[in-house]
Amino acid sequence: MVYLIDASVYIFRAWYSLPPDLADCDGNPTHALYGFARFLSDLLERRQPRYAAVAFDEGHGSSFRHRLYPSYKANREAAPVPLKRQFALCREFCRHLGVAEFASTDYEADDLIGTLARRCRADGLPVTVVSRDKDLAQLVAPGDVFWDYGDAAEYRYEQIAARFGVPPERMADYLALRGDSVDNVPGVPGIGPKTAAALLTLFASIDELFERLESVAMLPIRGAATLPQRLRMHRDAAYLARTLTRIVCDAPIDAGRVELQRRAPDLVRIADFCETHGFGSLLRRRSERLAAQIAARAA
Q1: Which of 51, 215, 218, 230 could form a cystine bridge with 2, CB 3.0-4.6 A?
Q2: Which residues contact 139 (CB under 8 A, 6 or more apart)?
């Protein structure tokens, strides 16, 4: 099993939930960094995965989705400078801990996770996606797990539809129809989550939906009579939305099973890192235990 971790979810969680008075010797906030480091160390100690990777978002308006649709994520405020600084330090901590980390200016963390998941499956490794972002549920295949770490909830392929409304392979179409306010993807006006889920229970994709559009008016769905015209008017928007919501699984990154195998933590650098950023001994002790686990596995 390979663990593919969506870093942003846990960095933002720490940024908003931990007291901001944790700082380094120069007074720079380090609470998001500390929360993420504690989360990652805890996950590795509990599960002891042989393979793991952490994906970061680095595009900040430069990804291919922004070029296709300039309003994509335009509703989000830019991350403050102290948080951006901590994102970079989180990547550094991953390297010291011996965990592969990835980022791209053209592709989002979701795309990097999707690409790594595809390559790992080709190498015979099932995947655990660690996130609470519903978008990433579309990556779950039979044998995989979607792990909402913060809520201690795990969902296998067969459980995704009950949790998110549709099975993984229809998630991008579902988000395209209903829209995704978090990412500022508008969807088809007048189609909400229930209607989108109902349509994709009856049709395998929006391609099939548009091919059989005239039959939609006869379906036992509230407002069905108006749906064909509504969908016809917004056909191009729906397909654009699906391009935005569908995770890319062939991003140009050179990594597979070998690159994702965990290395032993660099205990000297981690000790210096913790000292520099005002952390106590907890992370150092956890890193020592992680190093011992990897040494025992190699013995």
Answers
A1: 51
A2: 113, 114, 117, 127, 129, 168, 247, 249
pLDDT tens track, the chain, 299 positions: 999 999 999 999 999 999 988 888 888 999 999 999 999 999 999 999 999 999 999 867 789 999 999 999 988 888 888 899 999 999 999 999 999 999 999 999 999 999 999 999 999 999 999 999 999 999 999 999 999 998 999 999 999 999 999 999 999 999 999 999 999 999 999 999 999 999 999 999 999 999 999 899 888 888 888 999 999 999 999 999 999 999 999 999 989 889 999 999 999 999 999 999 989 888 899 999 999 999 888 76
CA dihedral 248, 249, 252, 254 (to 10 degrees): 150
**CB crowding 196-207: b at 16 or more within 10 Å, else e:** bbbbbeebeebe
Report the candidate in 248, 240, 108, 114 with the shortest Cα–Cα distance to residue 180. Answer: 240
Alpha helix ranges (H) inside 48-165: 64-68, 81-97, 109-122, 160-164
Written as six digits, the tokens of 9 are: 């979810």
Hey, what domains does the chain have and what are their CATH numbers? 2-163+248-298 (3.40.50.1010), 168-245 (1.10.150.20)
